[in-house]
Amino acid sequence: MLISSGFSMSSGQGVEKRAKHILDGLQNMGIKVSPLQAKKIKLPGLRHFEYLVGLPLAYLFKGSRFDLVDFQLPELSVGIGFIKCPKIVTVHDLIHVFSPEINPLLAKFYSRIIRTAVKEADVTICVSSQTSEDIEKLGWKYNEKVVIHNGIDPEFRPLPNKEGLKERFYGKKDKIVLGYLGGLGRRKRPLKLIQDFLSSDLSTDSVLVIWGRGPLEKKVEKLADGKRVIYKGFAPQDQIVSIYNSFDVFVFPSAYEGFGIPILEALACGVPTFIYRDAKIPREVARYAEKIDGVDEIKIRKVLRSRIREVKQKFSWKKTVDKVLKVYSSLISL
Fold it and tell me: What is the pLDDT of residues 16-26, one digit of tens each?
Protein backbone atom coordinates (compact mmCIF):
# COMPACT_ATOMS: atom_id res chain seq x y z
CA MET A 1 0.00 0.00 0.00
CA LEU A 2 1.34 3.43 -0.91
CA ILE A 3 0.31 6.93 0.03
CA SER A 4 0.73 10.03 -2.08
CA SER A 5 -0.32 13.30 -0.58
CA GLY A 6 -1.13 16.79 -1.81
CA PHE A 7 -3.86 19.39 -1.62
CA SER A 8 -7.22 18.97 -3.35
CA MET A 9 -6.78 16.89 -6.50
CA SER A 10 -9.19 19.23 -8.32
CA SER A 11 -7.09 22.38 -7.78
CA GLY A 12 -5.12 22.09 -11.01
CA GLN A 13 -1.86 23.09 -9.31
CA GLY A 14 1.39 21.45 -10.41
CA VAL A 15 1.64 19.47 -7.17
CA GLU A 16 -1.79 17.94 -7.71
CA LYS A 17 -1.23 17.26 -11.41
CA ARG A 18 1.92 15.33 -10.60
CA ALA A 19 0.32 13.42 -7.71
CA LYS A 20 -2.67 12.45 -9.84
CA HIS A 21 -0.54 11.12 -12.69
CA ILE A 22 1.54 9.06 -10.26
CA LEU A 23 -1.55 7.67 -8.54
CA ASP A 24 -3.11 6.79 -11.91
CA GLY A 25 0.13 5.07 -12.96
CA LEU A 26 0.19 2.95 -9.81
CA GLN A 27 -3.47 2.02 -10.07
CA ASN A 28 -3.01 1.04 -13.73
CA MET A 29 -0.34 -1.41 -12.53
CA GLY A 30 -2.87 -2.95 -10.13
CA ILE A 31 -1.06 -1.62 -7.05
CA LYS A 32 -3.24 -0.80 -4.06
CA VAL A 33 -2.93 2.90 -3.35
CA SER A 34 -4.20 4.92 -0.42
CA PRO A 35 -4.36 8.53 -1.67
CA LEU A 36 -4.79 10.16 1.73
CA GLN A 37 -5.74 13.81 1.63
CA ALA A 38 -4.84 16.08 4.52
CA LYS A 39 -7.84 17.21 6.53
CA LYS A 40 -8.27 20.97 6.60
CA ILE A 41 -7.94 22.63 9.98
CA LYS A 42 -8.79 26.29 9.39
CA LEU A 43 -6.47 28.87 10.95
CA PRO A 44 -7.14 32.24 9.26
CA GLY A 45 -4.21 33.94 7.58
CA LEU A 46 -1.78 31.03 7.79
CA ARG A 47 -0.98 29.79 4.29
CA HIS A 48 -1.02 25.96 4.09
CA PHE A 49 -1.13 25.66 7.88
CA GLU A 50 -4.63 24.18 7.81
CA TYR A 51 -3.17 21.10 6.09
CA LEU A 52 -0.23 20.42 8.38
CA VAL A 53 -1.94 18.32 11.04
CA GLY A 54 -4.31 16.28 8.90
CA LEU A 55 -1.89 13.86 7.27
CA PRO A 56 0.04 12.76 10.39
CA LEU A 57 -3.27 12.20 12.19
CA ALA A 58 -4.62 10.23 9.24
CA TYR A 59 -1.48 8.10 9.24
CA LEU A 60 -1.65 7.43 12.99
CA PHE A 61 -5.36 6.71 13.19
CA LYS A 62 -5.82 4.77 9.96
CA GLY A 63 -4.07 1.88 11.64
CA SER A 64 -2.60 0.53 8.40
CA ARG A 65 0.94 -0.42 7.64
CA PHE A 66 2.20 1.25 4.49
CA ASP A 67 4.93 -0.22 2.31
CA LEU A 68 6.02 3.26 1.26
CA VAL A 69 5.00 6.86 1.88
CA ASP A 70 5.52 9.50 -0.78
CA PHE A 71 5.02 13.06 0.46
CA GLN A 72 4.15 14.96 -2.69
CA LEU A 73 4.14 18.11 -0.60
CA PRO A 74 6.86 18.48 2.06
CA GLU A 75 4.69 20.83 4.13
CA LEU A 76 2.49 17.82 4.92
CA SER A 77 5.37 15.77 6.34
CA VAL A 78 5.09 16.81 10.00
CA GLY A 79 5.96 13.71 12.03
CA ILE A 80 7.87 12.05 9.19
CA GLY A 81 10.43 10.73 11.70
CA PHE A 82 7.78 8.50 13.29
CA ILE A 83 6.98 6.73 10.02
CA LYS A 84 8.96 3.49 9.86
CA CYS A 85 8.47 2.39 6.25
CA PRO A 86 10.54 3.80 3.33
CA LYS A 87 9.82 7.49 2.79
CA ILE A 88 10.08 9.75 -0.24
CA VAL A 89 9.66 13.52 -0.27
CA THR A 90 9.10 15.46 -3.49
CA VAL A 91 10.38 19.04 -3.31
CA HIS A 92 8.67 21.26 -5.88
CA ASP A 93 10.31 24.50 -4.83
CA LEU A 94 11.95 26.31 -1.96
CA ILE A 95 9.66 29.34 -2.02
CA HIS A 96 9.57 29.52 1.77
CA VAL A 97 13.35 29.96 1.77
CA PHE A 98 14.02 32.14 -1.27
CA SER A 99 10.77 33.97 -2.00
CA PRO A 100 8.49 33.91 1.06
CA GLU A 101 5.00 35.33 0.54
CA ILE A 102 4.11 34.92 4.18
CA ASN A 103 5.24 36.16 7.59
CA PRO A 104 9.05 35.64 7.91
CA LEU A 105 8.61 33.61 11.10
CA LEU A 106 6.14 31.28 9.38
CA ALA A 107 8.44 31.04 6.36
CA LYS A 108 11.22 29.96 8.71
CA PHE A 109 8.88 27.40 10.29
CA TYR A 110 7.92 25.91 6.92
CA SER A 111 11.55 25.88 5.81
CA ARG A 112 12.42 23.83 8.89
CA ILE A 113 9.66 21.32 8.08
CA ILE A 114 11.00 20.92 4.53
CA ARG A 115 14.61 20.62 5.72
CA THR A 116 13.57 17.90 8.19
CA ALA A 117 11.63 16.06 5.49
CA VAL A 118 14.67 16.08 3.18
CA LYS A 119 16.88 14.80 6.01
CA GLU A 120 14.48 12.00 7.05
CA ALA A 121 13.46 10.81 3.58
CA ASP A 122 15.16 7.80 2.03
CA VAL A 123 14.99 9.58 -1.32
CA THR A 124 14.39 13.27 -2.07
CA ILE A 125 12.91 13.90 -5.51
CA CYS A 126 13.42 17.43 -6.90
CA VAL A 127 11.28 18.60 -9.81
CA SER A 128 14.11 20.70 -11.30
CA SER A 129 17.87 21.07 -11.32
CA GLN A 130 17.40 24.49 -9.68
CA THR A 131 15.71 23.00 -6.60
CA SER A 132 18.33 20.27 -6.39
CA GLU A 133 21.17 22.79 -6.57
CA ASP A 134 19.46 25.05 -4.01
CA ILE A 135 19.40 22.17 -1.51
CA GLU A 136 23.15 21.81 -2.05
CA LYS A 137 23.72 25.55 -1.58
CA LEU A 138 21.76 25.50 1.67
CA GLY A 139 23.89 22.63 2.94
CA TRP A 140 20.86 20.51 3.83
CA LYS A 141 21.54 16.87 4.66
CA TYR A 142 19.86 14.16 2.57
CA ASN A 143 20.21 10.44 1.99
CA GLU A 144 19.69 10.30 -1.77
CA LYS A 145 18.56 12.96 -4.21
CA VAL A 146 17.32 12.75 -7.81
CA VAL A 147 15.79 15.19 -10.31
CA ILE A 148 12.55 14.13 -12.00
CA HIS A 149 10.81 16.84 -14.02
CA ASN A 150 7.11 17.59 -14.25
CA GLY A 151 5.27 16.94 -17.50
CA ILE A 152 2.69 18.47 -19.82
CA ASP A 153 -0.74 16.99 -20.47
CA PRO A 154 -1.24 15.92 -24.13
CA GLU A 155 -4.31 18.16 -24.39
CA PHE A 156 -2.09 21.26 -24.58
CA ARG A 157 -1.78 21.86 -28.32
CA PRO A 158 -2.43 24.58 -30.91
CA LEU A 159 -6.11 25.05 -31.76
CA PRO A 160 -7.57 26.54 -34.94
CA ASN A 161 -9.47 29.85 -35.13
CA LYS A 162 -7.43 32.01 -32.73
CA GLU A 163 -9.41 35.08 -33.80
CA GLY A 164 -12.64 33.31 -32.88
CA LEU A 165 -11.28 32.50 -29.41
CA LYS A 166 -10.21 36.13 -28.91
CA GLU A 167 -13.69 37.29 -29.89
CA ARG A 168 -15.34 34.68 -27.65
CA PHE A 169 -13.35 35.47 -24.52
CA TYR A 170 -12.62 39.20 -24.89
CA GLY A 171 -14.60 40.63 -27.81
CA LYS A 172 -11.25 41.90 -29.15
CA LYS A 173 -10.41 39.92 -32.28
CA ASP A 174 -8.87 43.03 -33.86
CA LYS A 175 -6.38 43.48 -30.99
CA ILE A 176 -3.09 41.77 -30.16
CA VAL A 177 -3.74 39.86 -26.95
CA LEU A 178 -1.01 39.61 -24.32
CA GLY A 179 -2.09 37.07 -21.74
CA TYR A 180 -1.23 35.93 -18.24
CA LEU A 181 -2.71 32.88 -16.52
CA GLY A 182 -1.74 31.95 -12.96
CA GLY A 183 -1.81 32.93 -9.30
CA LEU A 184 -2.15 36.56 -8.24
CA GLY A 185 0.40 36.68 -5.43
CA ARG A 186 3.40 38.95 -4.90
CA ARG A 187 5.86 36.37 -6.22
CA LYS A 188 3.93 36.12 -9.50
CA ARG A 189 4.21 39.92 -9.99
CA PRO A 190 0.93 40.55 -11.88
CA LEU A 191 0.96 44.23 -10.81
CA LYS A 192 4.43 44.68 -12.31
CA LEU A 193 3.17 43.21 -15.58
CA ILE A 194 0.13 45.50 -15.67
CA GLN A 195 2.11 48.64 -14.83
CA ASP A 196 4.78 47.66 -17.35
CA PHE A 197 2.15 47.20 -20.05
CA LEU A 198 0.29 50.44 -19.33
CA SER A 199 3.50 52.46 -19.57
CA SER A 200 4.53 50.82 -22.86
CA ASP A 201 3.72 51.60 -26.48
CA LEU A 202 2.05 48.18 -26.75
CA SER A 203 -0.97 49.45 -24.83
CA THR A 204 -2.08 51.52 -27.85
CA ASP A 205 -2.87 48.57 -30.14
CA SER A 206 -2.89 45.62 -27.75
CA VAL A 207 -4.85 44.37 -24.78
CA LEU A 208 -3.47 42.66 -21.66
CA VAL A 209 -5.69 39.89 -20.28
CA ILE A 210 -5.22 38.53 -16.75
CA TRP A 211 -6.66 35.17 -15.65
CA GLY A 212 -6.28 33.95 -12.08
CA ARG A 213 -7.09 34.32 -8.41
CA GLY A 214 -5.04 35.25 -5.38
CA PRO A 215 -4.24 37.83 -2.68
CA LEU A 216 -3.70 40.63 -5.21
CA GLU A 217 -7.03 40.06 -6.94
CA LYS A 218 -8.60 43.33 -5.72
CA LYS A 219 -5.61 45.38 -6.83
CA VAL A 220 -5.66 43.72 -10.25
CA GLU A 221 -9.38 44.49 -10.54
CA LYS A 222 -8.70 48.14 -9.67
CA LEU A 223 -6.04 48.49 -12.39
CA ALA A 224 -8.13 46.72 -15.04
CA ASP A 225 -10.12 49.25 -17.09
CA GLY A 226 -11.85 46.69 -19.34
CA LYS A 227 -10.27 48.24 -22.43
CA ARG A 228 -6.49 48.08 -22.24
CA VAL A 229 -6.38 45.66 -19.28
CA ILE A 230 -9.05 43.00 -18.85
CA TYR A 231 -9.33 40.91 -15.70
CA LYS A 232 -11.19 37.63 -16.30
CA GLY A 233 -10.94 35.98 -12.87
CA PHE A 234 -10.63 32.23 -12.34
CA ALA A 235 -9.70 30.14 -15.40
CA PRO A 236 -11.94 27.03 -15.55
CA GLN A 237 -9.89 23.84 -15.92
CA ASP A 238 -11.90 22.68 -18.94
CA GLN A 239 -11.19 25.98 -20.73
CA ILE A 240 -7.47 26.38 -20.08
CA VAL A 241 -6.27 25.02 -23.45
CA SER A 242 -8.65 27.37 -25.28
CA ILE A 243 -7.54 30.27 -23.06
CA TYR A 244 -3.86 29.72 -23.87
CA ASN A 245 -4.78 29.55 -27.55
CA SER A 246 -6.62 32.87 -27.27
CA PHE A 247 -3.30 34.62 -26.51
CA ASP A 248 -1.04 36.03 -29.22
CA VAL A 249 1.66 36.26 -26.54
CA PHE A 250 1.96 34.67 -23.10
CA VAL A 251 3.86 36.71 -20.49
CA PHE A 252 4.86 34.99 -17.25
CA PRO A 253 6.18 37.69 -14.89
CA SER A 254 6.86 35.42 -11.89
CA ALA A 255 10.01 36.24 -9.92
CA TYR A 256 10.59 32.66 -8.76
CA GLU A 257 9.37 29.24 -9.83
CA GLY A 258 10.35 25.77 -8.71
CA PHE A 259 9.48 24.53 -12.20
CA GLY A 260 7.15 26.71 -14.31
CA ILE A 261 4.51 24.44 -15.87
CA PRO A 262 2.51 27.38 -17.39
CA ILE A 263 5.54 28.29 -19.52
CA LEU A 264 5.61 24.83 -21.08
CA GLU A 265 1.81 24.62 -21.42
CA ALA A 266 1.72 27.89 -23.36
CA LEU A 267 4.60 26.80 -25.58
CA ALA A 268 2.90 23.45 -26.23
CA CYS A 269 -0.10 25.47 -27.46
CA GLY A 270 2.18 27.28 -29.93
CA VAL A 271 2.07 30.63 -28.10
CA PRO A 272 5.24 32.80 -28.00
CA THR A 273 6.22 32.95 -24.33
CA PHE A 274 8.16 35.61 -22.43
CA ILE A 275 9.67 35.74 -18.94
CA TYR A 276 11.50 38.52 -17.14
CA ARG A 277 15.27 38.40 -17.26
CA ASP A 278 15.61 38.76 -13.49
CA ALA A 279 13.34 35.77 -12.75
CA LYS A 280 14.69 32.68 -11.01
CA ILE A 281 13.25 29.88 -13.14
CA PRO A 282 14.88 26.45 -13.78
CA ARG A 283 17.16 26.63 -16.80
CA GLU A 284 15.64 23.51 -18.41
CA VAL A 285 12.32 25.39 -18.63
CA ALA A 286 13.55 28.99 -19.04
CA ARG A 287 15.60 28.08 -22.11
CA TYR A 288 12.42 27.75 -24.17
CA ALA A 289 11.08 31.23 -23.32
CA GLU A 290 12.20 34.64 -24.55
CA LYS A 291 13.74 36.85 -21.83
CA ILE A 292 12.77 40.51 -21.49
CA ASP A 293 13.38 43.42 -19.11
CA GLY A 294 10.05 45.02 -20.02
CA VAL A 295 7.09 44.36 -22.32
CA ASP A 296 8.36 46.98 -24.79
CA GLU A 297 10.88 44.32 -25.86
CA ILE A 298 8.16 41.85 -26.89
CA LYS A 299 8.26 40.85 -30.53
CA ILE A 300 5.75 38.26 -31.66
CA ARG A 301 7.55 35.39 -33.32
CA LYS A 302 6.04 32.30 -34.82
CA VAL A 303 6.68 29.25 -32.65
CA LEU A 304 8.07 26.52 -34.87
CA ARG A 305 6.36 23.14 -34.80
CA SER A 306 9.72 21.56 -34.00
CA ARG A 307 9.86 23.58 -30.77
CA ILE A 308 6.37 22.40 -29.78
CA ARG A 309 7.37 18.78 -30.39
CA GLU A 310 10.64 19.23 -28.49
CA VAL A 311 8.88 20.62 -25.41
CA LYS A 312 6.19 17.92 -25.39
CA GLN A 313 8.70 15.10 -25.90
CA LYS A 314 11.06 16.28 -23.18
CA PHE A 315 8.37 17.00 -20.58
CA SER A 316 5.84 14.17 -20.65
CA TRP A 317 3.95 12.87 -17.64
CA LYS A 318 4.67 9.32 -18.81
CA LYS A 319 8.39 9.96 -18.40
CA THR A 320 7.75 11.50 -14.99
CA VAL A 321 5.70 8.53 -13.79
CA ASP A 322 8.15 5.96 -15.17
CA LYS A 323 11.07 7.59 -13.37
CA VAL A 324 9.15 7.95 -10.09
CA LEU A 325 8.12 4.28 -10.23
CA LYS A 326 11.77 3.38 -10.74
CA VAL A 327 12.57 5.19 -7.49
CA TYR A 328 9.75 3.32 -5.75
CA SER A 329 11.14 0.03 -7.08
CA SER A 330 14.54 0.81 -5.58
CA LEU A 331 12.92 0.89 -2.13
CA ILE A 332 10.18 -1.75 -2.28
CA SER A 333 9.03 -4.55 -4.58
CA LEU A 334 6.28 -3.32 -6.91
Answer: 888 888 888 88
